[in-house]
Specification:
about 120 residues, about 85% helix
Length: about 120
């Protein structure tokens, strides 16, 4: 139980912070958007999706369907992030956060499903 709650909070926090940073174009986000080939406006949309995913994951323990759909949505965003990093020729250090978050979300979905 504590593991599930901790994982849920960690994922919600990560994606809420990333989503807000992208929406507000804070710090390095405009540069990261340009490097990835996105406009700042498109990056804000991705941030909105991350924020929605964070909310869905946070609600997941109470409404498992919402949490499951949010987790699947985050996995799709993360797949896009990995593909973008590979296409841009970014090295392993830039891939590690996306891969680690993918593992966390997959673990969350496994715990949510009760397997």
């Amino acid at each position: 139980m504590i593991l599930s709650v901790s994982l849920t909070c960690l994922i919600a926090l990560i994606f809420a912070l990333l989503g807000v940073a992208k929406i507000l174009a804070l710090g390095p986000m405009p540069g990261l958007a340009a490097h990835a080939g996105f406009t700042t406006a498109a990056y804000r949309v991705i941030g909105g999706l991350e924020l929605a995913g964070a909310v869905g994951v946070a609600v997941g323990p109470v409404v498992p369907l919402c949490g499951g759909l949010a987790g699947i949505g985050l996995l799709m965003l993360l797949a896009g992030a990995v593909i973008t990093h590979v296409r841009k020729g970014d090295g392993v250090p830039k891939l590690v956060p996306a891969v680690a978050c993918t593992a966390l979300v997959a673990w969350y979905l496994t715990l949510l499903s009760g397997l």
